Amino acid sequence: MPATTPQDAIRPRLKVEHLSASFHTDEGVVPAVADVSFGIAPGQTTALVGESGSGKSVTSLALMRLLSRNARARVAGQAWFVDRKGQSLDLLAVPEKTMRGLRGNEIAMIFQEPMTSLNPVFTMGEQIAESVRLHRGATHAAALAQAKRMLELVEIPAAAQRLHEYPHQLSGGMRQRVMIALAMACEPTLLIADEPTTALDVTIQAQILELMRRLQAQTGMSILFITHNLGVVAHHADDVAVMYAGRIVESAPVRELFAQPQHPYTQGLLDCLPARHRDGPNEAGSPRRLRAIRGQVASPLSPPPGCAFAPRCDHASAACTSGMPELLADEAGAGLASRRFTRCVLRQAPLAMEHAPA
Amino acid sequence: MKATLAKLFRRRIVLAAALMLLAVAVVSMAAPWITGHDPNDTAVLQRLSAPSAEHLLGADELGRDVFARIAFGGRYSLSIAALTATGAIAAGALLGLVAGFFRRLDAPLMRIVDAMMSLPDILLAISLVAILGPSLLNVVLALVLVYTPRVARVVRASTLVVRELLFVEAARAVGVPTWRILWRHILPNLWSPILVQASFIFAYAILAEAALSFLGVGVPPEIPTWGTMVAGSQQYAHQALWIVLFPGLAIILTALSLQLLGDGVRDLLDPRLKKNL
Questions:
Q1: What ipTM, to 2 d.p.?
Q2: Which residue from A178, A189, A243, A284 puts its CA 20 to 30 A from B192's CA?
Q3: Which of A119, A134, A146, A180 to mutate to test the interface with B (most CBs of B within 10 A)?
Q4: What is the DSSP letter of A9?
Q5: Residue A159 and residue A161: Cα distance in Å, rounded?
Q6: pTM for the whole structure
Q7: pLDDT band at A313; cut points 50, 70, 90
Q8: Which residues are CB-contacts of A255 (< 8 A; sequence separation ≥ 6)?
Q9: What is the CATH number of the domain that holds A98?
Q10: How far apart are CA A325 and CA B61, in angstroms?
Q11: B165 → closest Cβ in A108, A109, A116
C-alpha cells in the first residue's frame, strides 16, 4: 500500500511493494504477477483472493523465493519484512543464505495438498524436528520434544505415539495439522498459508481454520492467507486483496469489501456466492440460479489492452481499453478513505451498487 | 518388515531362490570348516577323480578338491559381486541424483552415461581390465564402471519424479539446504528402485566376473573363483565333466536365484512405488 496510510503507525510485518513475477516460456514472456502491493500488520491476517491462475500462489512463492528453482522466473519489486530483531529486510534482495535462515524460522508456509507435502519415508516427529534442529541447533532429543509439543499444540491426539508414525497413517485433516505443527515449530512471525483448507472437507476445514486462528491469537503471528474461498475470507481475514490476472484489482478491510465492493470483478465474485438470504425483486434472473461471471480469464500471453477484466465486465467502456487503470486510494467515502484501493476507471464515479447497504 | 518378508516369500520360487542364496552364502563363509581340503592342495594321484566320499564333487586336473574350490571360490565370486553392486549403486546414485536434480548438469552427465552404455558390457570390462591389469580390485573397478550408468539412469528418472513432489518444496520452505534435501528427502524415496537394481547388478556381476575369468582377463588364475575354475578346466571337460559342471552350476544357480529374488522384490515394491512417486 502507498505510504500515506494510517497503518504506518504500526510497522507492518510485511510490506510488499510493486511485486511482479514473469516466466520465460517458449511462447514468450508470461507476466504471472504484476505490480502487486499489500501489507500485513503484526498479528493480522491479509487474504489474497482470486480465481485459479490469478497469481496468488506465484505471489506467495515469490515472497518465499521458491520460484526461481524450477522455473525461469524473473521477480521484481520489494518485500520488506520485519524480523524478530526489528530489522527490515527485503525478502527479494537478501542473500540466499539469509533467506534460508528465514524460511521455516521466521516465515513459514503451509501448502494446499497435505497428502503430498509430507515426506512419505520419514516419521512425523523427524520432519518437525528437522526444522527445529536446522534453525535452533537443538539436539535430536530436544527437537523431538519440541515436535511433540507442537503436535499437542495442533491438537493431535496421542501425540507421543503419532511422533513415530508415518504420514500415510494419518488422514488428510490430521496431515494438515501436522503441516501446521511443522510450520509453527520455530514460532514464525509470518505464516503464508496457500489454500490450506482447499483439499479438506468442510467440517475439517472449519477445525483447521479455528486452529490457525487460535495459534495466531497465542503467538501474535501475521498470516498471509491465500484462498479462493470468499466465505473463509469473510470469517478469518482482516484485510483482503482481490487479484485478477496477476494484479490486485481491489484491496480493503474485510468488512468494507464485503459491504461495498467497488471493482466490478469483486462484485461479480460476491454475486457468484450461493446466498440463501439474498432475495428481493431487484435480483436479476431467477433467485435460485447461481450467477457466473461471463467469459474466461484472458490468456496471459495476449492480455487485452487496458484493464484485464474489461472483456468480461458489464460496465466496460472505451476508457477501459485505453490503458491499465492505476490502483488508487478510494476518495469516495471519507470514512473509508484509508485502506481502500481500487483499480478501475469507474472508481471516481461509483456504480449504482446492488450490494450497498440499504 | 515381517509382513513384507512374508509377502515376498509367498511366492514359492522367490523363497526357493532366497534359500539357495542363503545356502551358497553359508557354504562360502564356512568353507574352511566344512570342506576338509585346501582349495589349492594338489594331489596328482587323484587328478580328474570322480565324485566320491573323499572328493564330494570330484577332483580337477591337478587333483584339487572341486567342492573346496567352489566353496572358497564362492567367497571371491560373491565378494566381487557384492563390491561391484555396492560401488555401482554408490556411484550411480550420486550421478543420477545430481543429474536429476540439477537441470544444468543433466544433459552433460547423461550424455557421458549414454556413451558408456553404448559400449557392450563385456567389451568395456575387457578393455578396462586390459588397461588396468588383471587383479581382483581392477575387476571390481571395471565392473563398477560398467554398471554405474544403469544405476545412474534409474536413479535420475526417479529423481526427476520425486523432485517435483510437494514435500521437496515444503522442505525448502522450512529452510532445508539443497544438499540436505538431496540426501535426506529425495534419496530415501529412491530406495525401492535402487534395491531392485542392486539385486540385478549382483547377478550380472557374478556372470560378468565368470565371463571375464573365462576369457582370461579376469581374476588371476591362482585365485579360485567360479569363473577361473571353468576357464582352467574346460579342456578336461570331455574326460571329467564334473570339474566344469559343478562350478558352472554354482554360477547358474546363484545368478538365477539373484534374478528371481530381484524379480520378487521388484514385484513387491512396484505398486508401492507407483503410489509413492
A1: 0.77
A2: A178
A3: A119
A4: G
A5: 5
A6: 0.79
A7: confident
A8: none
A9: 3.40.50.300
A10: 97
A11: A116
